[in-house]
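#onboarding

Welcome to the new folks! Below is a worked example of what a typical request in this channel looks like: someone posts a single protein sequence, and someone else replies with the predicted structure as tokens. Don't worry about understanding the tokens yet, we'll cover that in week two.

Example request:
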Amino acid sequence: MKQLIILIISLVTVSGLTAQDVTIQKLDSKINNVSVFLNKAQITRTKKVVIPKGESEIRFVNLSPFINPKSIQVTAPGQLMILSVDHELNYKNKAKKPPKLKALETQYQKLTDDIKLAQTHLDITREQIDFLQKNKAIGGKNQPLSVAAVKSMGDYYAKQLAALKLKTLKQEKALEGLQKKQKSLRKELQKYADLKVFPSGEIVIKLSCPQSFTTSFTLKYNVDNATWFPSYTIRMNDINKPLAVTYKANVSQNTQVDWDKVHLTFSSANPSLSNDVPKLIPYRLGFGTMPPVYGTKVKEVTGYVYDASDNSPLPGVNIVVKGTSIGTSTDFDGKYHLVLPNLESPVIVFSYLGYKQQERIANQSPINVWLTPDEAILQSVVVTALGGSKHRRHLSGKIRGEKIESAPDRLPQSNKPNKNIAIPVERINHQTSLSFKINRPYTIKSEHKVKVIPIKNFDMPADYEYVSVPKVNPNAILIAYVKDWDKYDLLSGESNVFIEGTSVGKTLLDTQTANDTLQISLGVDNGIQITRKLENKFTGRKFIGSKRTEMRHWKITVKNNKNQPVNIKVHDQVPVSVRNDVTVEVIEKSGGKINSETGEVIWRLQLQPGEKKILNLKYAVKLPKYDQLIIE
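Example response:
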């Protein structure tokens, strides 16, 4: 037995010595590069490390808690063997609260205590009033009171009641003031709400090395709660000159780690509104059919996003059209505005750190959303902090990170006139995506704010034409037609439009549905006047046998009030019969071209300054005498 005890002690001692031989290094590292995708980001860190001989462990600490363990890549040159890579969450080392947050929390707690105290004093005063009112009866049933006694008691009651009422008003006013301060402070605290919950992430690398040497580790991994979406500014100063375009990236991240002076790459991996050109719906005649109705499709959506727990607005909520690169975010008051692409049923996705994601079909406006806190995240923090298992990703064997190199592909010189490049940028083409590498460091704080980074400025040649569908909208909309648009690396996104230095609103660059030519709606030009009028003196009925004829005459007047010539395309329509006993005859169309299948009539006009042209559209509908068809 004695020998067995000695053997066990020896084994424990040897085991302890072996454990002590494993060197553990905890390392802070710097983020060098960030590739931002439409809904996440890839982080690249590098760190020089002295590797001891034998087995050792390296811990990269103070990382984001939102790392995808499956995405971790580790590379290090030299004769070493990576035994495993683990991802852990350190709940003892939660994200540090900034001093301002601590001060706000202290102030908020004091306000909460002051409100409770003020409410208590108010309740006491109200109870005093209630007690006084319930005991205002004086004297007994068999005890007559003198006039002096009654007067004295009445004066006392009135004096006490008045004092208590005035006291109540002061207390209510003070309480209301405290509650307003608390509400305002809650908005400030909302900016830092995520810092209260999440732990820090760690990546643990176990390795073996035959001899000590110094090497450089490169660490790559994907994180959630990072996004970017493209937007543009388009300026048109002269219809004889190209469009001046500013290409911008709107980036935000709430990974719980600031990106300090990092090199950014924006990748497209993983876009109408009131100035969009309307489309005519075929006007088909038949029993019980109605003329087409226009203006029912939602072109843009606005609204507010609130916290469902207390109805407070949420700033910085990420809002995107599902399956596109079109997006926006809420302002400080929780308000947003989003232009919709020409999709049948676009879906809007609302996402916010620490809240459950919501999807809404964009079939109306406004759309207000109440986001619910994600209890699963909070529960996970509580359970693990009380001793639950850590999040761990274990990878055995020698691991090499995949290295993808892309040669710089500058835009053709013809697309980059002087003052074109806002900042140094490289275009990188991949098999299924497009990236922009920004060759200048930027700092992106972990917060609910969008930072706008200009990617490039360039001139984009375009052909211009005014288009009008006066039956739906009597305005002339300026359209730019861009050929070979794909060489400008455009992605679907919103654009602010300026015509001759004046802001005319927003439009949408919809590259998803564009063909060889990209059509961009630049907005309404009030310099062209258009009217559409039914000429009653040419409208009438003729009865011939069992048939009757309904005649219509529409007069369209187009006038160019601008000081330069313009080209304009005007759309209208005639009905199309779907019955054998109903026929439509076009009597006059002023040179317009008609589509016999849809009934759409198109005129292409060139108007000199001050010139006016009149377009006549006359048609006759022959139908059975007693049929009741609705004819415009």
